[in-house]
UniProtKB/TrEMBL annotation:
<feature type="domain" description="Acyltransferase 3">
    <location>
        <begin position="9"/>
        <end position="339"/>
    </location>
</feature>
<feature type="transmembrane region" description="Helical">
    <location>
        <begin position="205"/>
        <end position="223"/>
    </location>
</feature>
<keyword id="KW-0808">Transferase</keyword>
<feature type="transmembrane region" description="Helical">
    <location>
        <begin position="12"/>
        <end position="34"/>
    </location>
</feature>
<feature type="transmembrane region" description="Helical">
    <location>
        <begin position="263"/>
        <end position="281"/>
    </location>
</feature>
<feature type="transmembrane region" description="Helical">
    <location>
        <begin position="322"/>
        <end position="347"/>
    </location>
</feature>
<keyword id="KW-0812">Transmembrane</keyword>
<feature type="transmembrane region" description="Helical">
    <location>
        <begin position="288"/>
        <end position="310"/>
    </location>
</feature>
<keyword id="KW-1133">Transmembrane helix</keyword>
<dbReference type="Pfam" id="PF01757">
    <property type="entry name" value="Acyl_transf_3"/>
</dbReference>
<feature type="transmembrane region" description="Helical">
    <location>
        <begin position="124"/>
        <end position="145"/>
    </location>
</feature>
<feature type="transmembrane region" description="Helical">
    <location>
        <begin position="157"/>
        <end position="185"/>
    </location>
</feature>
<dbReference type="InterPro" id="IPR002656">
    <property type="entry name" value="Acyl_transf_3_dom"/>
</dbReference>
<feature type="transmembrane region" description="Helical">
    <location>
        <begin position="239"/>
        <end position="257"/>
    </location>
</feature>
<protein>
    <submittedName>
        <fullName>Acyltransferase family protein</fullName>
    </submittedName>
</protein>
<keyword id="KW-0012">Acyltransferase</keyword>
<dbReference type="GO" id="GO:0016020">
    <property type="term" value="C:membrane"/>
</dbReference>
Length: 371
């Protein structure tokens, strides 16, 4: 059983916003499948349908939040036990990710075969070994599974990350900062001198440095770094963070394409700190956000397939209908929430309880069990 329980208020709210924004964005992209216009937000410079920027950045926010929470728990575990159990860490990841991951993978393949949707058989292997980012980069993702690239990135990162936590915190911090600098510099160099190269795409998709930015924040918070805490929790910092979130929600945030995710990572840290500080300017700790944050993994995983299935039974004759557009958004959202909740209760939770009983050293009332 867990020797200590840690709970950070408001972080389920961040997780909820990120998950719902991804869901709404993908509904927008799928509106044409329902016979509706999908250009509600206009078009990009390349002529593609515009979606919510917050959705694209939502995955980056997930990465930063994951890096922060998991690193902090590892640091507390090491503080309590003088070491980190690599074996138990891997078991925790397996019991949290694998049941839903493979269940949905199997279900998606069955649905694709049933509806006679083309499946690139050579890509299946990558999904089995948690390398879905490879077919994503190559443009050979499986039906309903293109979003699995982000799960692959996290699993690849956490293969080696617990070994880093065996170092002293300051050494771990120094190494993390060095890796972040190297990755960002390499990405910038390639963007300028070798734009759209494969390596640039790999760094952009993998975003290990974004996870590391969250990890660095966890280390500084763990060390009670006074300047870091002061700068990230001040009223001015919190106000700027909320203004940034509004700009993203309105699709008004863009500085430089090759730096956007890095800047979002920094703001994500500020958002995290604004919630866990003693006096949040605006708290996201409420029953709705806690509920959505709890089932956010299911929301993220199930939504592509559910949107597709709903589009097979609901076709609108009037493409201009505002009412039907609203109905489609509501139905897709409600269906995804219902399925995610059922999945959490009957598929995920039994494994989470076993994980907590057998392999959790440092637990959390709500946060850690969702990792």
């Amino acid at each position: 059983m867990a020797k200590n329980v840690i709970y950070f208020k408001g972080l389920n709210g961040i997780r909820a916003i990120a998950a719902v924004s991804v869901l709404l964005s993908h509904i927008t992209l799928a509106l044409s499948n329902f016979g509706l216009k999908s250009n509600l937000l206009g078009y990009t410079d390349t002529g593609e349908t515009k979606t919510l920027d917050l959705a694209g950045y939502g995955v980056t926010i997930f990465f930063v939040l994951s890096g922060f929470l998991i690193t902090y728990l590892l640091l507390v575990e090491k503080e309590q036990t003088s070491t980190v159990s690599i074996k138990k860490f891997y078991w925790r990841r397996l019991l949290r990710i694998w049941p839903l991951y493979f269940s949905y993978l199997f279900l998606s393949l069955c649905i694709a075969i049933y509806f006679d949707i083309s499946v690139n058989s050579s890509s299946v292997f990558y999904y089995i070994i948690f390398s879905a980012n490879v077919p994503f980069i190559l443009g050979t993702s499986l039906p309903f599974l293109s979003h699995y690239w982000s799960l692959a990135v996290e699993e690849q990162f956490y293969i080696f990350w617990p070994f880093f936590s065996l170092f002293r915190v300051k050494v771990m911090l120094m190494l993390s900062v060095i890796i972040i600098i190297i990755l960002i510099w390499t990405k910038g160099f390639l963007h300028i001198y070798h734009p759209n190269s494969l390596l640039e795409t790999i760094i952009h998709v993998s975003r290990f440095h974004c996870i590391l930015i969250g990890a660095v924040a966890a280390m500084l918070y763990f060390l009670k770094h006074k300047l870091f805490i002061l700068l990230t929790t001040s009223k001015l910092s919190q106000l700027l963070t909320w203004m940034w979130l509004i700009f993203i929600a309105l699709n008004k945030f863009h500085i430089a394409s090759f730096l956007d995710n890095e800047l979002v990572s920094i703001f994500a840290v500020l958002l995290i700190m604004s919630q866990i500080c003693e006096a949040p300017l605006l708290s996201m700790e409420n029953r709705l956000f806690n509920f959505l944050g709890t089932i956010s993994f299911g929301l993220y995983v199930y939504h592509p397939l559910l949107i597709y299935l709903l589009s097979k039974v609901l076709i609108v004759s009037n493409s201009e209908s505002v009412l039907w557009t609203i109905i489609v958004y509501l139905l897709c959202t409600l269906l995804t929430i219902i399925v995610a909740q059922i999945s959490f209760k009957y598929l995920e939770q039994p494994f989470l309880k076993y994980k907590k009983k057998k392999y959790t050293i440092v637990g959390s009332a709500r946060n850690a069990d969702r990792l």
